[in-house]
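Researcher: I've been going back and forth with a colleague about how Mannosyltransferase might be arranged in three dimensions. Neither of us has a model we trust, so I'd like an independent prediction. The organism is Ditylenchus dipsaci, in case that matters for your notes. Sequence below.
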Amino acid sequence: MFSLKSWDGRHKSWLKSLVGLGVAGHLLGNVLLTTVLLYASSQNYPGGQALTHLQHQHRYLRNKPVTVHIDSFSAETGVNRFLHLYDSWE
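Model: Here is an independent structure prediction for Mannosyltransferase. You can compare it with whatever you and your colleague have in mind.
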């Protein structure tokens, strides 16, 4: 509600104009920062990316039993059982 009133009243005085532009700038900055931080957080899990890459590379072996060992470092960097795609893989 404050944002709408600030934006609607921006033509009444220079102070309200400054507040309206500040609110709009803050909203735009928030969207941009959220986008950057979302991308950065998606890159925090190299183990998950490795498992996804492994499954993509061996997608033609999806029906053959394959055993993938998940050590502690891999588990700490994003590999988990929720990411596996093929039921025949262990």
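Researcher: What would you highlight for our discussion?
Model: I'd start with this: The two ends are 54 Å apart (CA to CA). After that, consider the following. Residues 46-83 form one domain.
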